Amino acid sequence: MQIRQEVFDDRAGIYAVTHAAFSKDDHLVEPSEVGLVQQLFECDGYSPAFSLVATNGNTVIAHVIATWGTVDGKHKLLGLGPLTVAPEYQGKGAGTALMQAISDRAESEHVSGIVLLGATGYYQRFGYEPAVSRGIIPSDPVWGDHFMVRVFDERSLPTGHYRYAAPFGC
């Protein structure tokens, strides 16, 4: 398995992995996450530096993306999601490798932190904690502790109300 920044030619593989990972019972219905990823690639918050793939040979087996959102409409902060792993590779380290790689990339780029909305039991092992405890308020208070942050630089971490990149709609 190799981890690298995605390139345009990876997009079909990314969409296929996203479709497979988020399909429920009906594989003929395209999951909303596929459209979300397509929109994230086109939005103002997209940065290729924060879109990474895991590959097995030439095949994309997993993808993670973080796009720029804002705190109080003026301070930029990355919002992660979705993290996608092909079903046959789930539980084999691809998701863990991508989470570590995107954290390493963010830290090397001097990003103050990354927020995400996800399962606390999964993401806490990567250093994520409830964002509210750091003064970052989700756009939907119902998210509670599932809205988390990984802090890289406490001094420059903004506080206030977070808004994801436009395609998220929140």
Automatic annotation (TrEMBL):
PROSITE patterns linked to this entry: GNAT
Annotated signal peptide: none
Family annotation (Pfam families): Acetyltransf_1
Ranges where the N-acetyltransferase domain occurs: 1-149
CDD domains attached to this UniProt entry: NAT_SF
Name by which UniProt lists this protein: N-acetyltransferase
Species: Glutamicibacter ardleyensis
